[in-house]
C-alpha cells in the first residue's frame, strides 16, 4: 500500500498509477477528481486535514504546477480551504443564498431550507441619520432612525453582521420588539408594512479587526457585503441595511432571465440578419 497522506496516517488519496499520462484529460483535472472522490469515499468532514503540495507531488508523481492547478480549482469550487502556514483542509460547504435578487430576508431564506436563525441584538435604538442613511431613506441628515445591529447565527454559527435602519414611522412599530428569534420582515408584516421592491448590491470586502472577531474568521478574511434599500407599496423607503456575510460560508446566487430584446437580438444573429 502506498504511504498515507492524511495527517493521522490512516488513509491514502491515491497512487502514481492513478494518473493516466495518455488520457486526453489534463493531469490536474485527474488529480482534482481523485481528491474529490476520496474525500467522499473516506467520509472526510469539514476541517479534516488534506495533504499539501509536496506530498501530492510525491504521491502522484506530478509537478508542483499540476498540483497547484488542481488545488486552485478545488479552492474556487469551495471544496477545500488553504490556510497559509497551516495547510489544506476540507472546506465547510458554502450555502447558496438568493438574498441579492429577492426581497427575502436571511431568516426566511434559512428557515425555508430547514435551518435555524438566531440573532444577538447588539443595538436597538433611535439614532440621528448620517448623510448616507438619510440619502438611502430619503430623509434629512439628523432625522431619527431606528438602528438595529444584529450578529446573526445560522445553526449556531456566526453568519452575518447586519445593521438595519428604519425611518421613524416604521421604527416606532418595532422599537421594543424581541428580535432574537424572529423575522423582522414577518413582524413588520403584522403591521401591514411590506417591501414590494428594492435595490440591492453585493461586493467583496476584507474583514477588519472588529468584523473578523465577531464573525470568528479573523482580520483580513473575505466577506460578502450586501446593501439594500426596501420600498413599501407607496414607494417610500422603509428599510436600509448593510450586512457583512462570511465569505467562507455563503455564496449569493442570481436568477437570470433573458429579456424580449435579448431574445430578438439572438434570433437576428442566428438568422444572420444583423
TrEMBL record:
Q: Which UniProt keywords are listed?
A: DNA-binding, Transcription, Transcription regulation
Which PANTHER family does the UniProt record give?
Answer: MANNOSYL-D-GLYCERATE TRANSPORT/METABOLISM SYSTEM REPRESSOR MNGR-RELATED, MANNOSYL-D-GLYCERATE TRANSPORT_METABOLISM SYSTEM REPRESSOR MNGR-RELATED
Any one GO molecular function term: DNA-binding transcription factor activity
- On whether Transcription is a keyword of this UniProt record, the answer is yes
From its record, what is one biological process in GO terms?
Answer: negative regulation of DNA-templated transcription
Which intervals hold domain HTH gntR-type?
A: 25-93
| Keyword Transmembrane set for record | no
| Protein name stated in the entry | GntR family transcriptional regulator
